[in-house]
Design a protein that fits this description.
The complex is a heterodimer of chains A (132) and B (479).
Chain A: H1 2-23, H2 31-49, H3 51-58, H4 62-82, E1 92-97, E2 100-105, H5 106-130
Antiparallel strand pairs in A: 1-2
Chain B: H1 2-19, H2 24-52, E1 55-58, E2 69-72, H3 74-93, H4 100-104, H5 107-123, H6 127-146, H7 151-182, H8 187-193, H9 199-217, H10 235-260, H11 266-287, H12 293-314, H13 317-348, H14 359-362, H15 364-378, H16 386-398, H17 402-428, H18 442-460, H19 462-475
Antiparallel strand pairs in B: 1-2
The chains are: A mainly alpha (132), B mainly alpha (479).
Chain lengths: 132, 479
């Protein structure tokens, strides 16, 4: 029963986690909350199908994923140097179209890095606590 | 940007090392490379500070006091340089000699997080940001201390983490109070406003900070956690902690009582004076009857913290310049001695004094290194410990603080006695029986020798360094 529920709920959780990540700059949410929800989806995989299945679903080593997230976050900090602005200054690109205004900025990249760090750390914690 | 480079380089290295989690062989090279870059950046920073005076940097273009400001002065930049140097030596020391599980479970990324935390603490100009770096240091050092999971390591880890977490709590409480009283957290900005706060309130708040930083600095009577935890992890970790961690506590004390509250009340300086005196004498006495070199060094380290905090209690520019010198000297020397102790333990096969002896005949190089370290730690001229020690004693004499003079002299006496005893055991006593030790790895010997060479280097360069440190004390401070 749980396995059936997990099969449907995990993708939904992942979807919500991305939603949380995207709305996080001005509204509640962000990389940390989104990452936790994504990790919850993976934890559900583990409870339903076992640890191997969770690690397989992640496809990469969780610790390496955390490191990758850190690198992504740092890239967002470094990108301001390329634009000739002081370190960590946020850069924004704004597109105005008939449908509305779209903004994309380096703080988004930072949040994305946090998202990966949280998933990586949470999954590796679950991995260690599960033993073997 | 150069201010932040000393912090960003180790942080990026840690991130890259984490990302390469599944490639331990590549990590080894990247760790060394990152360390060399870190040292280079720290050297440039110090050069720039000597040439141009303190350098400020507002992160993310948010100006102080609203954003977080980093500001490197001579004290901070010199500490950052020694941190980078010790980091490089530790990385070299552990390049080949580190057991496989520790390497696999992230020893090197943790070392870099620790180095980033230290560099951040040495360069930040924001009191809350300092707290963040302290947490960064505490978490990484706790894992480093207990990584490996041996029984005594876990016990040492608990001794270490409980007081340190308590200290973080006090720090945070103090931050809340000082923000409530002044409405700012930028250190220079605080310096302008703390004078306007009622002195009694300021004394109470700073007592919180004194306890919080004193715990980290192993100030008397809060030093119990240090000698009961520093002898448990591998030698490289002990050396890293002994060299750098307590000094960051002292550094925070200096920042607080020179920058945040530039003229502390007599109650606080008097308290600091007596606590320094207590540490100098009590820990010095305890050092003389320890059963391993590492434990003895732990107590001597605590005793010598008294020189630093005593100098801070004196508060004159000369005393502060001498504290700066003594701190740099002590970081290098104590770290070097822990590394030598590690080499000796692996040649003898055991750490206990019972299996020690005959070093002069069997391993003359180690005997030289040990002797050099002992002389430097005891402050024998012409090595680097002598001038700042004498400078502090003379300054205490000039400012009419006989208690501190007595404490410093007694501590020096105990140190010399303790080291002479250890020297006789290690070097002159015939080797007891056959030992099961092995020849230590070449890179470890190279790393230790390099650090000992740096002791001599610092001794030779002491003149100019002292001039810069004194100049920094008299000219610093923002108009």
């Amino acid at each position: 029963m749980f396995a059936v529920a997990a099969r449907f709920l995990s993708p939904l959780f992942l979807l919500i986690s991305v939603l949380l990540l995207m709305r996080g700059h001005n509204e509640p949410g962000g990389g940390f909350a989104g990452g936790l929800v994504a990790a919850a989806a993976l934890a559900m995989q583990m409870l339903a199908f076992g640890k191997e299945e969770m690690l397989r679903a992640l496809r990469v080593d969780p610790r390496a994923l955390a490191g990758f997230g850190l690198v992504v976050s740092l890239l967002s900090a470094f990108s301001s140097l390329l634009a000739g602005k002081p370190f960590f200054t946020g850069l924004w690109w704004v597109w105005e179209s008939p449908l509305g205004v779209a903004k994309l900025g380096t703080p988004m990249l930072f949040d994305l890095g946090v998202y990966f760090v949280v998933i990586g750390i949470a999954v590796s914690l679950i991995d260690d606590l599960e033993g073997e | 940007m150069i201010v932040l480079s000393v912090l960003v380089i180790p942080l990026s290295t840690a991130a890259i090392l984490m990302a390469l989690w599944t490639h331990p062989e590549v990590r080894r090279v990247i760790a060394l490379l990152g360390s060399v870059l870190h040292l280079g950046a720290a050297g440039f920073l110090l050069q720039a500070v000597v040439d141009r005076g303190p350098i400020s940097f507002a992160v993310g273009s948010w100006p102080a006091p609203f954003g977080i400001e980093f500001r490197a002065d001579f004290l901070g930049a010199s500490m950052a340089l020694v941190t980078a140097l010790v980091g490089l030596i530790i990385n070299l020391y552990t390049t080949n000699d580190l057991d496989e599980p520790r390497r696999r479970f992230g020893f090197h990324p943790l070392v870099f997080v620790l180095l980033a935390g230290l560099s951040g603490a040495f360069t930040t100009n924001d009191l809350f940001n300092l707290f963040v770096w302290f947490e960064c240091i505490l978490l990484s050092s706790f894992v480093l201390l207990s990584l490996g999971g041996e029984r005594q390591q876990i016990r040492g880890g608990i001794n270490y983490v409980v007081p340190n977490l308590f200290s973080s709590m006090l720090f945070l409480a103090g931050l809340g109070l000082i923000y409530g009283a002044t409405g700012t957290l930028n250190m220079d900005h605080l310096g302008m406003r703390t004078g306007l706060v009622e002195p009694g309130l300021m004394t109470a708040i700073s007592a919180l900070f004194l306890t919080a930083f004193g715990l980290k600095a192993a100030l008397f009577p809060f030093f119990g956690w240090l000698p009961t935890s520093y002898h448990t992890p591998p030698f490289a970790v002990s050396a890293l902690f002994a060299g750098l961690l307590t000094k960051v506590g002292v550094f925070a004390l200096i920042r607080f009582f020179t920058k945040v509250w530039p003229d502390p009340s007599v109650a606080i300086t008097g308290l600091l004076l007596w606590l320094s005196m207590g540490g100098l004498v009590v820990a010095g006495l305890a050092a003389m009857r320890q059963t391993t070199l590492r434990r003895a060094l732990g107590y001597l380290l605590v005793s010598h913290i008294g020189f630093l905090t005593g100098g801070l209690a004196l508060g004159s520019p000369t005393a502060l310049a001498m504290v700066n010198l003594y701190m740099a000297h002590h970081m290098i020397v104590i770290c070097g001695l822990y590394l030598v102790a590690g080499l000796i333990a692996s040649t003898a096969g055991s750490e206990s004094l019972k299996s020690a002896g005959g070093l002069v005949k069997t391993h003359p190089l180690l005997a030289w290194l040990l002797g050099l370290g002992f002389l430097a730690l005891a402050g024998i001229p012409p090595l680097s410990g002598f001038a700042p020690k004498v400078g502090l004693i003379v300054e205490a004499f000039r400012l009419n603080q006989p208690v501190l003079v007595a404490g410093m002299l007694l501590s020096s006496l105990f140190t010399i006695f303790c080291l002479a005893k250890l020297w006789m055991i290690y070097a002159w006593r015939p080797q007891p029986g056959d030992t099961q030790g092995s020849q230590p790895d070449r890179l470890r010997i190279l790393a230790t020798t390099l650090l000992c060479a740096c002791m001599i280097g610092l001794s030779l360069a002491l003149g100019p360094v002292a001039t810069w440190a004194s100049a920094a004390q008299t000219t610093e401070g923002r108009p």
